[in-house]
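During the first year of the project, the team set up a workflow for recording each protein of interest as an amino acid sequence followed immediately by a discrete structure-token representation. This format lets reviewers and collaborators read both layers of information side by side without switching files. As required by the reporting guidelines, we include two representative entries from the current panel. The first entry is reproduced here exactly as it appears in our internal archive.
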Amino acid sequence: MMRGQGRNARSSRGDRLRSRFMPGLARLADRGTLFLDEVADIPLPAQTALLRFLDSMEVRAIGGQHTHRVDVQIVSATNRDLGEMVAGRSFRADLLYRLNAFTLHLPPLGARSDFALIVRHLMRKLAPDAAITDAAITALSLRKWPGNIRELQAALQRALVRGADYVDEGSFDDHPLQEETDSCPTCRGHPLDESRCRDIRRTYREASENISETARRLGLSRTTVYKHLGL
């Protein structure tokens, strides 16, 4: 059962942690979808509350007398390895099993087939009259983006400050572009492996982000493709 804060309730620290999952939001999402972002950051006491909620689909405010049953679809997101967290006992295995009904792996930002469209959309948003070269977009696609869209937008803003209405690969000299292969420990410092990573990323985009097709075109295993894409 998921609990929240009743009007006159006094809560313990554990209750406050559990009430992070607001019953009001669950009720608002009734017959719809409840999105749990950065699920890996949920503290253990709140994980227990969430698991109980998933088992019962019932919510009750702390200090309240009545429970409310909801019908929601749960979608969660994380950029961390929950399996490793389970092994390290910082994430509940039973909660992972409940959340892991279907997993969708999203590619790194720079490896997405629509990366150029994203860059051009941000450029129109930031400076409608400015232009960006294809070479600049390619250079940006080779950078790792731990901050995702926000970091990409900030990089474009810095480039626009320098270039006013024209952005090329030289616009990013003050912020050296690191290749996405830095996220693959087996490639770091090995030019041949880094070249392979670039080939895999390019083929992945050309194959419409299809892992199996990328592996087939390059004659590699799916596991190797996953590793070099950082998935």
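The second entry, processed by the same pipeline in the following quarter, appears below.
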Amino acid sequence: MSSIPLKPINKSDRALPLSARLLLFWQLLLRRLRAADHPERGDVPGWVMVTLMSALLVAALLAIAGPALTGMFNDAIQQVHK
């Protein structure tokens, strides 16, 4: 991936009005972001779905096994205190 400089290339570019400099900066930024976008970057929505499903699975297990886990924890703490 080639590096796209965000600085003006020569000193004559500094004479541009602020709006033109902002437009130039925006175009260079978009060009850099597009250069980083390639098909091997990963499936972000897929990872979000996996994370949400994992969180839901943990919540469901805690809802079902919560009382049993609480009982086991309390029994273990009582045995330590004896």
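For the second entry, the following points were noted during internal review. DSSP finds two helices and no strands in the chain. The chain has a mean pLDDT of 79. Both points are flagged for discussion at the upcoming steering committee meeting.
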